Each structure stands twice: as structure tokens, then as C-alpha cells.
Amino acid sequence: MAADDSRVWSGRRFTVQDLDLLRQLIVQHPDATRAHLSRLVCEALDWRKPDGGLKDMRCRVVMLRMHEQGIIALPKPKPTSRIMGPTLAQVDPDTEPQPEITDPVHALMPLRIERFDTTNGQLSRRCNTFIQRYHYLGYRVTVGANLRYRVMAADGRELAYLVWGSAAWKTALRDIWIGWNEEQRRLRLHLIINNTRFLILPWVHSPNLASHVLGLMARIVPADWNQRFGYRPVLAETFVDSTRYTGHCYRTANWLNLGQTTGRSKWDRYETLSVPKKDVWLYPLSKVPRIALIGT
């Protein structure tokens, strides 16, 4: 790799010197797990989240991509002695289809919205399993800051699950709408959050429930995010596969439709990988999101 051939992974530019440092750390710590190495790398590069914590989960994903491309050589994954539960692919009887819910929204209110994270192992696993079984994108490990929510009817019946995570690194339509430059995007991207999963359980058929939940989320998530991560987001985004869904609930909840993505993967360095085009939707979480994101 030439000196001017630095690469950007997950929003961070890695120079030749950075890659040399990664290789040195791997050699210097031959018995370290991949998780430990990611923490060492974050500390050496001072790669941190806005709240000061290490971006070790994001770093692990980046290092795996580098390993797959032959740029670095990671040690083999360490076997674990921890007793593992059943995988998400196995059937959990408690997440089988349940009795149909057709109540109108007003009959389900007041909705009960429960925030949780991975420290709540049982509920976190339940959320993952529902998403794996019933969401068309399935379950994926969430890298970076994220919040999860369960939505229940007043009587305790489960209705929906939502996951909010970090924004996409580059989205042309969004970036043009904001009007920021590369440096502004690098410095303020964390102020955007992404509704990465929204699952109304498939046996729930309550007209306008989805848009009502999105309206509640717009009022709840910014404060929760600030409490959990130490800063308040100013813009929400999501991406909807228009071959499957119209995005009607986002439109009804007053989200802004900017158009469609180009159909390229974020890992598509050579523009040869095609992925489904998706509608880009935005929702301002403050009165002046563009000013906050540009920084003027």
C-alpha cells in the first residue's frame, strides 16, 4: 500500500502507519483474543465514541474486514468455555405466532414502551429472536451505539420491537439535504441516528399503530440517547426497501422521503456489488438539525 493510499473503514481513515501499528500489536500480543486486540488498537489510535468510550465493537468489525482482504492477519478465534444457549436459528416456542391482535389503536392505549439493552439478556435475546424470525432483514449484531425498545399494549400484549443505531457513513441524498462537507460529516455524523429495525409483530393488525409508535419514538429516543450516551441526536434516518414496503407509516408520521439510494454496498470499493435500492427517510429531532450538523 503506497503512502497516499490510505483507506476509510467505518468512518475512520487508516494510514499506512496505522496499519503498521495494527500489525505490530498483533505480533506483540500473540495470545490476545480478537476482542482484546480491538481494545488495544482503539487505545493506541485513540478511537473513541463521543462519550469517551472505546469504539472496540466497531474496531472488531473493521479488523475482520481487513483480515478478510489480506491486509492484516488476525489470530484464530479463541474457543470459549462459556455455556452457550440455543442459537437464534433454533425454534423458541415462546416466539411462535400468537393470537391475532386487531384492536384499534385507541383500544391498545396507553402504549407501554420499554427500553432495554444487552444487559437484559432475556429480553435482548427475545428481541433478537423475533427479528430473526419475522423481519425480512433478519438479526445482525449491532455495532456502535444503539438502543432497543419493546412496545406493549396497556394490557401487556407485545406489539412491536424497534432498534436504533448509528447512522450510515455515507448517504448522498441525506448529505446533500444537510449540505455539509466531508469534515463536517466526520465530526457530526454521530448526531444522526438510524432506525435500523422496526418490527410490528406479524399477528398484530391495528391500523395506524406503526405511525403512532414512530411519533412516540420521536419524543422518547432523543432524551434516552442523551441519558445513555451523553449527547442528543438531531436527526433520524431509515431506509425502506420499496420493493417490499411503501413506507406509508413513516410518511404518516411526518418523515421526509428524499428518494432512493444508488444500490451500492458500503463495502463496494470497486462499485461492482449491487444491493437493493432503498427509499431514504429523514425525521428532524430538533428545530434546526441542518444548522447543528453543519456547525454554523
Overview of this protein structure:
The protein has 296 residues and is α+β, with helices and mostly antiparallel strands. The chain has two domains: 7-68; 93-294, Aminopeptidase (3-Layer(aba) Sandwich), CATH 3.40.630.30. It has ten helices and nine strands. The strands form two sheets. A seven-stranded mixed β-sheet has the order 3-4-5-6-7-9-8, sandwiched between helices. A two-stranded antiparallel ribbon has the order 1-2. Helix 1 packs across helix 2 (34-45) and helix 2 (34-45) packs across helix 3 (56-68).
Question: Would you summarize the structure shown here?
Answer:
By secondary structure, the chain is an alpha+beta fold.
Q: Kindly report the average pLDDT value.
A: 86
The strand order across the widest sheet is 3-4-5-6-7-9-8
Main sheet attributes: strand count, strand direction, barrel closure = 7 strands, mixed
CATH topology of the largest domain: Aminopeptidase
**In total, how many beta strands?**
9
CATH superfamily of the largest domain, by name, is Gcn5-related N-acetyltransferase (GNAT)
Supply Rg: 21 Å
The portion of residues forming beta strands comes to 15-25%
Helix content: 25-40%
Q: What form results from the Cα inertia axes?
A: globular
Structural class: alpha+beta
- CATH hierarchy: architecture of the largest domain: 3-Layer(aba) Sandwich
Alpha-carbon distance between the two ends: 37 Å
How many domains? The number is: 2
Number of helices: 10
What is the chains' assembly state? single chain
Low-confidence stretches: 80-86, 265-273
Series of H and E elements: EEHHHHEHEEHHEHEHEEH
